[in-house]
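Morning run. Coffee first, then this:
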Amino acid sequence: MKQRLILVLCLLFSLNAGYLSASAKPIVIKVFELPDPRHTDAYSKANLAVVAAFREKYPEIELQAFSGIKIEGMDLDSGPLLAIAGGVAPDILYVNFRQSDTYIQNNLLYPLDEFIRHESDEAMDLRVEKPVWQVIRRKKKGDQQERVWALPYETLVRVLMYRKDLFKKVGLNPNVPPRDWDEFLDYAKRLTDPASGTYGTVFGDRATSCL
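And here it is:
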C-alpha cells in the first residue's frame, strides 16, 4: 500500500468560515499542485471535481498552484524541501510518507490536532486507514505528546493479476495464485520462458523473469 500524505484544505478552513466570508479580498492559498484541466483521464477528472467542489464551497478562497523550485524527477521527495529551503514553500504541500519524519523532526509541519478534533470519529475512520495512523501521528523529539502532522491524500491498493492459461501451460493450478513471496518467486521462475518472450512477472513497465 502506498500512501501519499497531504495537509487537507477543507479541515484548514472549516473552522474559519466566518472570518473568511467577511474578508473583502480573496484569500490566496498556494498548494503544491493543481490538476491540469487539459488531462482527460479518470484520475485527473476526479481531482478536478474535488477542486471544483472546494471552490464552490469556499468561493472566497483562491487556490494557486506552486511554481517555485522544482527539479525534474525529484518533485515528490526533494521538491518540497527545496522550496522550504528557498523560502518559497506553498501553504499546502505534499509529503511523501517515507520522508514525513524528516519534516516532523525539523519542525516543518504544523500539527492538525486543533482542526481534526472537530471531525467525527466516523469521518476520520472513513478517511484514515488504521495502519496509516502510525505514520501521521507521532511524537516530535523532545515532545511528550503525539500529534497529527498530516492526512492521507489518497490510498493506492495493489492487486495481483495473472493469466490462468499460462498457469495451465506450466502445470500450475490456475485457481491457486501464489500465497506468499516464496511462492511468487517460484511461480515466476516456472512461468519464465525468454525464448518465447514470456516472463514470470512484471513490475512497472519492465518485464523481469525473477528478482
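Residues 164-208 form one domain. Good start to the day.
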